[in-house]
Write a structure and sequence with these properties.
73 residues, mainly alpha, 2 helices, elongated, SPFH domain-containing protein
Length: 73
């Protein structure tokens, strides 16, 4: 019974983390567009969303990766 309660608590916590992360990603995209800071095509927007969700939902601290080049030619 205790395991079931713990599992339920973990799922509820994860759901709240994901909902918060999605809201922050949405807000970031809106602010970038609104302030015309950067213009992202759909592919780059998807990559940014993916990266932000990984960072915001991760249980451990993340390490930045510096891109010395470009993926786009």
């Amino acid at each position: 019974m205790l395991q079931r309660q713990q599992a339920t608590a973990v799922v509820a916590a994860r759901k709240q983390i994901v909902e918060g992360a999605v809201g922050m990603v949405q807000m970031a995209l809106e602010k970038l567009s609104e302030r015309e800071i950067v213009h992202l095509d759909e592919e780059r927007k998807a990559a940014m969303v993916s990266n932000l969700l990984v960072v915001l939902c991760a249980e451990k601290a993340v390490s930045p990766v510096l891109n010395a080049g470009t993926l786009y030619n």
